Amino acid sequence: MLTVTDIDCFYGDVQVLRQFSLSAASGEILCLLGRNGAGKTTALKAIMGLVPPRSGSVVVDDVDLTKLPAHAAPKYGLGYVPQGRRLFSELTVAENIEIGLMATGQGKPTRDRVLDLFPVLRERLSQVSGKLSGGEQQMLAMARALCTEPNVLLMDEPTEGLQPSMIAKIREVVVALKQTGVAVVLVEQRVDAVLPVADHVAFIENGMNRETVPVQQLRDDPSLLHRYVGI
Amino acid sequence: MKGLISKSLGLHLGLIALLLLLHFILPDYHHVSLARIMVLAVYALGFNLLFGYTGLLSLGHALFFAAGLYGAGLSMQFFQWTAGPGFVFGLFCAIAVATLIGMLALRTVGVSFMIVTMMFAQVGYLLILYYNEYTRGDEGFVILRELRMLGPLDLSAEGTRYLVALALLAAAILIKLALVRSPTGRILVAIRENEERTRMLGYDPFRYKLMAMVISGGFAGAAGAAYGILFGYVGASFASIQYSILPLLYVLMGGAGVVLGPLLGTIAMFYLIDIASGLTSAYLFFVGLALVLLILVAPKGVLGTIRDRWVPWLP
To answer: Does A163 fall in a domain?
Structure first.
């Protein structure tokens, strides 16, 4: 379970997150929505410790990660799939996965389970990852993060630039993760791509979490989407 | 995977065997030159680990080379040590200096890292000149021939010198090959490709970069110590900025991020300078021209381009 409480983050003197809070329980999919520049990516980076909060706390499964260095987060169950995939493009698919496995000392069972989720990667193991298609790269980015066996997975716009079949595949994997008890925090611009799988939606505006609502409430009253996302 | 490993190991062992064969057939001049090249190639191999694999461009590597050179030379000069202890002490000095400089310089990134490493190397160079009472400054000093002994082996003898240089190069190549094929080697490449992403997976980049710096400094120090012992001369010019730039040129020429790239680059650059300097005092013009051509034709260096186009398994 992830609990973020009242974090404040700054880029230099500019405050980008203000008293930002959210929580995601095990097996829950929380979608973080907001306009461009609202602070969605920064919120994920702050949770990971890449943009250290000046105040507030980030707790994963009762462990306070706020003061720990960023590289310690995966050891406590936090996984991150960044925007734009950011693979190690000169390494092969197998090497990318191996680096993910080694990070938290996982072995063959994890490797097999992850490759079962993304069978296409199994066929590309010896291929240099920079030469994969966009969809395959996204799958590899997810696979690499899953190799650390996270309890909480943060995903930043995983469907960006992907064709519908790939989006459907990623959605399928997210649902499979939820069923294994992983808490997923999803930042997305494409509301239609994530609402079908989300449990809750949090709206971020000017670096603040304005409202967190069950997804059913949005279906009944889409005006919130109009207010915070402009659609 | 096993096939690839044995193929690349076979290639590297084959090359070492070829260099051994050359020992018996090369004319005197090239025999001496190749011994020198092999020692300098060890220096470049270490530089490549930091630059080609980890993505850190140091402009102060001459400091580590000089630490090995002076560590060996001064200890032999003042304590009358022979080659073995002198080499070990030189190596130790280089590793100690690389650790210290790494802990400080790795707090910076990019251009700042280049400047900070260059600045430390300049400090080292100036210290050598300042303490000329011990180092003999710019003039340098000669290591006594009777001290350049490794057990019964006289390292000043041409044949022995070549074989010892080859043994050092072989060890450096095999250590480097093992390292870059290991999980640690892949993490270094991952840091080069995307440091932040590597951190997000749970690795501490500082720790790995420091390790790369220390190993790289160790290679440079081993080369420096061997250079002094095998060729008998220790001088401040080896600590100058020129000796920080040379391994970069070797690596760019041969191919960064390829194990054998620095060796090929050292051979090519050594002979280019050798031949061009016999023709004109403006020999650096030819070095510059070669680099411009290289960037146009093979921007990843000779072996880097060959790997990209034809031999993807080349480590």
So the answer is: no
